[in-house]
From TrEMBL:
GO molecular function, one term: phosphatidate cytidylyltransferase activity
A GO cellular component entry from the record: plasma membrane
Subcellular location field: Cell membrane
Known EC number: 2.7.7.41
The name this protein goes by in its record: Phosphatidate cytidylyltransferase
Organism: Thalassobacter stenotrophicus
Catalytic reactions of this protein: a 1,2-diacyl-sn-glycero-3-phosphate + CTP + H(+) = a CDP-1,2-diacyl-sn-glycerol + diphosphate
This protein's record includes keyword Lipid biosynthesis: yes
Gene Ontology biological process: CDP-diacylglycerol biosynthetic process
Pathway noted in the entry: Phospholipid metabolism; CDP-diacylglycerol biosynthesis; CDP-diacylglycerol from sn-glycerol 3-phosphate: step 3/3; Lipid metabolism
Membrane-protein topology: Multi-pass membrane protein
InterPro entries, A to Z: PC_trans (IPR000374)
Top-rank taxon, per record: Bacteria
């Protein structure tokens, strides 16, 4: 029988996240930046706990991350970058084990947070909704296709529940979101490819976090979100997509223009 036992808690928690996140996106500016700073700080705290840091060090690294991202919103980018990089450097000094894991994921969390605030500031509401739509559609399509269609596992030793059917369904859903947004903007067909690439990177973020949890022998990053585990569990996909989008917007014209 198809297992949807976790569906209702996931939906209830997701609705709360949608309300809080939607209000912050709509308010934009310092409200959105503050939410991102707090969420990323909590994820760094969860990361530090997962790799075995004590509560004092975990809280200190999480608080430092929140402060660095809050300052990054208020400061010019050139002055903000050293503050963000200070977090993984502090982790190297404070942690005794798994420093490379902390350094890698803390950097991803911080630069994803920076990328999200800059994305909303520079491109506005419609393009933030597009990004959220790509990640959410990919996740939902993957969840249902994986459970309804089943089939070969994507990477069973790391993420036993993920299937190739769900993975590909996520790509298709993301491409459809890109196609739909093309219809209400002046973006070119490249947007479909970017949407699929973001879905792929979102899936890589999910897989990477699953690999860390498996290595550390933990089921969830924390128990803050019923049905979802921790914030790191819920937003690992968005982290991957946001990092790639930050790179795309830094290197190429965005939104993509028609050919």
């Amino acid at each position: 029988m198809t297992n949807f036992a976790d569906l209702m808690p996931r939906i209830a928690t997701a609705l709360v996240l949608v309300v809080v996140g939607g209000a912050a996106v709509w308010a934009a500016g310092p409200w959105f930046a503050a939410l991102i700073a707090v969420v990323c700080g909590i994820m760094v705290w969860e990361l530090a706990r997962m790799i075995g840091a004590d509560q004092k060090r975990s809280l200190a690294l999480g608080g430092l991350s929140t402060g660095a991202l809050a300052a990054a919103y208020a400061l010019p980018l050139g002055l903000a970058l050293p503050l963000l990089l200070a977090v993984p450097m502090a982790g190297i000094a404070a942690l005794h084990l798994h420093r490379r894991i902390f350094m890698t994921f803390a950097l991803a969390i911080l630069f994803a947070g920076l990328g999200l605030t800059q994305h909303l500031t520079n491109f506005g509401l419609i393009w933030m909704l597009w990004l959220i739509g790509v990640v959410v559609a990919s996740d939902i399509a993957g969840y249902f296709a994986g459970r309804l269609l089943g089939g070969p596992k994507f990477w069973p030793t790391v993420s036993p529940k993920k299937t190739w059917s769900g993975t590909v369904a996520g790509w298709v859903a993301a491409g459809l979101v890109g196609w739909a947004v093309m219809g209400v903007t002046t973006a070119g067909i490249d947007l479909i490819g970017i949407s699929v690439a973001l879905a792929m990177m979102a899936q890589m973020g999910d897989i990477a976090e699953s690999a860390v949890k498996r290595k550390m022998g933990v089921k969830d990053s924390s128990n803050l979100l019923p049905g979802h585990g921790g914030l790191f569990d819920r937003f690992d996909a968005m982290l991957g997509a946001a990092v790639l989008l930050f790179v795309i917007e830094s290197l190429a014209e965005f939104p993509p223009v028609p050919a």
